[in-house]
Write a structure and sequence with these properties.
With 207 residues, the chain is mainly α. Helix 6 packs across helix 9. The longest helix has 28 residues. It is globular and about 55 Å long. The chain starts with 6 loop residues before the first helix and ends in a 5-residue tail after the last helix. The model has no long low-confidence stretch (mean pLDDT 91).
Length: 207
């Protein structure tokens, strides 16, 4: 195995965050996030070829079309679900009241970097809960999540190989707490989503 140094992960994350900052300075959040995702894919595809964790995973498993279809569907479901959640938040008096509480207002008044760090912590609570629930074999969630584990190798294209309902369930456990905590403004969500997606890609690849 020609494994890359352990510092590679941190360097790739830093380069992706830097790319996001450069793109966000000139483009909309959607374009900047999509551009960062594309940059991450190109970076991973290159490193996977040059310094794979397992050289055997570079060989085709015949699942490329399935992986690509899942990636496209997952991206569409992710975008649509976040849009629905944003609409719900705007119309929910309960969420608005919670977001206006003293604690949430205190978080909302912090500098952007601090709010992003807070969002990563709050979001991770929901992320951990969903990850745990989806791996309990006696619960029905596993029947959805097993799609993600039905692969013979890790590489950049099957990172988002999820059942659509798996994607929806994860977002429902992660994003509402962010809104309630007063961390649902567009810039915080841009950075949260960008870092969350990038870490997901970097943690599920042949590097």
């Amino acid at each position: 195995s020609c494994a890359a140094p352990t510092t590679t992960w941190a360097l790739m994350l830093a380069s992706c965050v830097f790319t996001a900052a450069v793109l966000r300075a000139s483009f909309s959040a959607f374009v900047a996030q999509a551009g960062t995702g594309l940059f991450t894919i190109l970076l991973l595809a290159s490193v996977e070829r040059l310094a794979p964790y397992d050289p055997k995973w570079k060989e085709s498993d015949g699942e490329e079309a399935t992986d690509a279809a899942h990636t496209g569907i997952s991206a569409a479901v992710d975008h649509a679900t976040k849009g629905c959640l944003a609409t719900w938040v705007a119309q929910s008096a309960l969420v608005q009241a919670a977001a206006g509480s003293w604690g949430s207002q205190a978080l909302a008044s912090l500098p952007l970097v601090a709010r992003v760090v807070a969002a990563l912590i709050v979001g991770e609570i929901g992320g951990y809960a969903s990850h745990w629930l989806f791996h309990v074999r006696s619960l029905p969630f596993w029947e959805l999540h097993r799609v993600h584990h039905a692969v013979s190798r890790l590489w950049w294209l099957n990172t988002a190989r999820f059942h659509p309902l798996d994607v929806v369930a994860q977002l429902l456990l992660i994003y509402p707490p962010l809104f309630v905590a007063g961390l649902g403004d567009s810039e915080v969500l841009f950075w949260y989503g960008t870092i969350f997606n990038t870490v997901g890609q970097l943690s599920h690849c042949n590097v």
